[in-house]
Design goal:
Strand content: 5-15%
EC number: 2.4.2.21
Keywords: Cobalamin biosynthesis, Glycosyltransferase, Transferase
Mean pLDDT: 98
Protein name: Nicotinate-nucleotide--dimethylbenzimidazole phosphoribosyltransferase
Pfam families: DBI_PRT (PF02277)
Low-confidence stretches: none
Order of helices and strands: HHEHHEEHEHHHHHEHEHHH
Bound molecules: alpha-ribazole-5'-phosphate, nicotinic acid
Catalytic activity: 5,6-dimethylbenzimidazole + nicotinate beta-D-ribonucleotide = alpha-ribazole 5'-phosphate + nicotinate + H(+)
Length: 345
């Protein structure tokens, strides 16, 4: 079981070397702002004074949710499988963006409700969607452990293939309901303040979603200090798999670019399993979902971008990835004052 990971400490001394080097580059000190702190953070994570983030690897985990029976999404459950086919055919937003940043894209079926016969999908199928958590636990503990382990192993394969930055994404109709329930259980924020419009429900449907989460948490009573119990009671297979993937990346000193609301809730659960995983996370953007701000605050992080995205799939992380390239290329390619013959103040 991959909850026994050992995450190495950040290499603070390497970060200090990078910081000193950045101060010698031909620009006023500190003038590249957040790009400078990003480069220093990447140096501490990777243990390299001149860090590299290329190539990035994107993994999208897909699964269904029994809670969709309660009418909590604007789209029917079948869209999960249809979007997986779209990913495999190259037509989704994450395909376009992965290609643009030169990243590999791996699609993992961790629990889609209908069969997908396609050799391009990585088959780590555990069950046909979660159970309806209004009525019963979403998963057994052993299903949660299998999903975390599958995510962990898929990330390890990717890292062994040479990826230097991990982007995790998800596809699962109904997963903003599961993520909202998880975050409400994990924090003291009200359900009302966390729940948003997901794929585009009406205000009336949002009120219904709040009520369903309220009743579900009352019925399930997850233990807020136990990530496995939270996932078993109100979680999702793809949410558990993303948690495992993040633990693997941190264990291997691979920076994790965290996407939107659902992905950030997985990140929160990963920190509950192993607090040190947080040091390897960079939050790419601030999603429109109101719970996202609260999940980012739980991690004590700042998002790099706010582009009013509300998609998921790993898209926001792919969009932010070039900022990491700007930061690492700045360190590797800029001239120093002495090499360029530019006078210091
Ligand atoms: C066509 C389509 C593509 C998507 N890609 C990601 N999501 C996103 O929307 C879903 C969560 O929203 P909710 O909880 O309201 O169902 C997830 O699948 C998420 O990845 C999509 C949703 C749709 C409809
Ligand atoms: O922020 C996200 O990741 C998100 C928001 C709405 C729907 N799907 C994903």
């Amino acid at each position: 079981m991959q909850t026994k990971v050992s995450i190495p400490p950040l290499r603070e001394e390497i970060g200090e070397q990078t910081a000193r080097y950045i101060d010698q580059l031909t620009k006023p000190q500190g003038s590249l702002g957040t790009l400078e702190s990003l480069a220093i953070d990447l140096a501490k994570m990777t243990g390299e004074t001149f860090p590299t983030v290329l190539p990035a690897g994107v993994i999208v985990f897909a699964a269904d949710h029994g809670i969709t029976e309660e009418g909590v999404s604007a789209y029917p459950q079948e869209v999960t499988a249809q979007m997986v086919r779209n990913f495999l055919n190259g037509g989704a937003a994450i395909n376009v963006f992965s290609q643009q940043i030169g990243a590999k894209l791996k699609v993992v079926n961790i629990g889609v409700a209908t069969d997908i016969h396609d050799e391009k999908v990585v088959n780590r199928h555990i069950r046909k969607g979660t159970r309806n958590f209004l009525k019963e636990d979403a998963m057994t503990l052993s299903e949660v452990e299998m999903a975390i382990d599958a995510g962990y192993e898929e990330a390890v394969h990717y890292i062994n293939e040479g990826i230097k930055c991990l982007i995790v994404g998800e596809m699962g109709i109904g997963n903003t309901t599961s993520s909202s329930a998880l975050l409400a259980a994990l924090t003291t924020h009200s359900i009302e303040s966390i729940v948003g419009y997901g794929t585009g429900i009406t205000e009336e449907q949002r009120q219904h979603k709040v009520d369903i989460i309220h009743q579900s948490l009352h019925n399930r009573k997850p233990n807020p200090e136990d990530a496995l119990d939270l996932l078993a009671k109100v979680g999702g297979l793809e949410i558990a798999a993303m948690t495992g993937a993040m633990l693997a990346a941190a264990e291997h000193r691979v920076p994790i670019l965290v996407d939107g609301f659902i992905c950030t809730v997985s990140a929160c659960l990963a920190t509950l399993i192993c607090p040190d995983v947080k040091h390897y996370m960079i939050v790419a953007h601030q999603s429109v979902e109101p719970g996202h701000q609260k999940a980012i605050a739980y991690l004590k992080k700042e998002p790099l971008l706010n582009l009013s995205l509300r998609l998921g799939e790993g898209t926001g992380a792919a969009i932010a990835f070039p900022l990491l390239q700007f930061a690492t290329n700045m360190v590797k390619q800029m001239a120093t004052f002495s090499s360029a013959g530019v006078s210091t103040k």
